From TrEMBL:
One of its GO terms (molecular function) is metal ion binding. Keywords: Heme, Iron, Membrane, Metal-binding, Transmembrane, Transmembrane helix. Belongs to the cytochrome b5 family. Pfam families: Cyt-b5, FA_desaturase. Residues 74-131 form the Cytochrome b5 heme-binding domain. One of its GO terms (biological process) is lipid metabolic process. The chain crosses the membrane at residues 205-224, 282-299, 319-341. SMART domains: Cyt-b5. This is Cytochrome b5 heme-binding domain-containing protein.
């Protein structure tokens, strides 16, 4: 469980608010801070949804634990839930344009957020009624809404119109630019690994190779959000798993950023805490600024170790062997090749974690669960509150930097299945939509995002006012 947080009422007991709650659906008052805190400060209070037990494992939680929690809490009854209806998509598995893996992973869960965020075209909504099984009997576990006249669904209509009005060759050319960039990055990473082995240049060429492996993985992340394609497996060069990241990043973090359901928050607890718990220990608040870099540096090794421990290795994990293979083909002795591979992975993991966690989420001005969110839990407004876009990381400026450093962050979160190269085409629609709702389109510098990450790690007072 989150450090310093107790769950009163999770087993049908009476909680702090004096009400009795059932085992699987914890009332918003059921998660309260236990002890400590600052006198007069707002009390940490979670959103009105069931508590994911996988959080109790912290860094040892797995994506399969999280999926099991979703199946326990979502009331999907072994089917696929969208809003308040259950659908049997089994006959559609092999016809799903995105590939059967997305449907296999989400069977038995509520896919409402995933469905609307990943299907901008009208086709999916037109097909869905054909697979209706029955109405759901349990209420939705998610507090986020998709009212047809609400902020997100209206923005989605604007985006759909832009895509429909853009000539198909323009869209395909944009997507091809992303493919070319990630192909060149992957080839450059492997070539530099070979050169590092040939010249025995561990700390110069080896470091460059590690950074290239890291940015290749970041660019490959663009592709595991999309329909099944082989370029997603460039991600495996980092010793991490695109299958795991389809869950922890695409299905968890992207859909529920900065909340108890965000595995990219869970995986660092209790050692690094991004949520504003009032009784957060001083060690976690400040010493984590130093030791967190060690956690970044072992991301690749650590995630492989967890997969090995839980017997969750996939055949595609073998893609990672392309790195030592390129070193060995350069004539490097076996021991030196192993040491160089280890160094490349440490550099790659460090760079991936350090810049990835500074890319536009963890800043005191962003929403983190425990902060006030506002009365309207519209999915799009939540995404706006929890994300930031860095000024230097916009696709219209430099696609290479955007692809490799998680750029165009707000648009990417709201429409993750769209290629990064397409997102710049949507910026005018977002600007127009925000103006209609009288909302600012705030950007921050990369330096402010980095500084904000550390301030957020230290923050222990929930924000009583909703983020703008």
């Amino acid at each position: 469980m989150a450090p310093n947080v107790v769950s009163a009422g999770i087993l049908a007991a009476e909680c702090d608010c004096g009400q009795v709650h059932d085992a699987d659906h914890v009332h918003e008052h059921a998660l309260v801070v236990g002890g400590g805190g600052v006198a007069g400060a707002p009390r940490w209070q979670g959103l009105p949804w069931g508590y994911p037990k996988a959080r109790d494992k912290g860094v040892m939680a797995t994506v399969d634990d999280w999926l099991a929690d979703r199946r326990r809490l979502d009331g999907a009854e072994g089917l696929w839930r969208v809003e308040d209806n259950l659908y049997d998509l089994t006959p559609f598995l092999d016809r799903h344009p995105g590939g059967r893996e997305w449907l296999q992973l989400t069977r038995g869960t509520d896919i409402t957020e995933v469905f609307f965020a990943h299907h901008v075209a009208e086709t999916a909504e037109a097909l869905l009624p054909k697979f209706l099984a029955r109405p759901a009997t349990a209420p939705r576990n998610s507090p986020f809404t998709f009212h047809r006249d609400g902020f997100y669904m209206q923005l989605r209509e604007r985006v759909r119109k832009v895509l429909d009005d853009t000539p198909k060759p323009v869209l395909e050319a944009a997507k091809q630019r992303s493919k070319t960039i990630v192909d060149v990055l992957a080839a450059s990473a492997l070539l530099t690994c070979a050169l590092a082995g040939y010249f025995r240049s561990f700390f110069v060429l080896g470091t460059v190779a590690g950074i290239l492996v890291s940015v290749t993985a970041s660019a490959a992340h663009n592709f595991f959000h999309q329909k099944h394609n082989w370029r997603r497996f460039y991600f495996e060069l980092s010793f991490m798993s695109s299958r795991e990241w389809m869950v922890s990043h695409a299905l968890s973090h992207h859909i529920f950023p900065n909340t108890l359901q965000d595995l990219e928050v869970t995986f660092f607890e209790p050692f690094v805490s991004f949520l504003p718990y009032p009784s957060k220990h001083l060690v976690v608040r400040y010493l984590s600024w130093g030791y967190s870099v060690v956690m970044y540096a072992v991301l690749g090794h650590g995630q492989f170790g967890k997969r090995l421990l839980n017997l969750r290795l996939e055949p595609t994990d073998a893609v990672a062997l392309a790195v030592p293979a390129s070193v060995l083909l350069a004539g490097t002795p076996l021991l030196d090749a192993w040491l160089l591979w280890s160094w490349v992975l440490v550099v790659s993991s460090f760079y991936f974690g350090y810049q990835g966690l500074s890319a536009g989420h963890h800043h005191p001005d962003n929403y983190h669960e425990g902060d006030a969110l506002g009365a309207d839990h519209d999915f799009g407004l939540m995404q706006l509150a929890a994300t930031s876009t860095c000024t230097g990381l916009r696709g219209r400026t430099w696609l290479l930097l955007t692809l490799t450093h998680f750029g165009d962050h707000r648009l990417h979160h709201m429409f993750p299945a769209l290629d990064h190269a397409v997102l710049p085409l949507l910026e005018p629609a977002l600007d127009e939509h925000l103006a209609q709702y009288r909302l600012p389109n705030v950007t921050i510098t990369s330096w402010e995002a980095l500084r904000g990450k550390y301030l957020q790690m230290a923050r222990n007072r929930p924000n009583p006012r909703p983020a703008s």
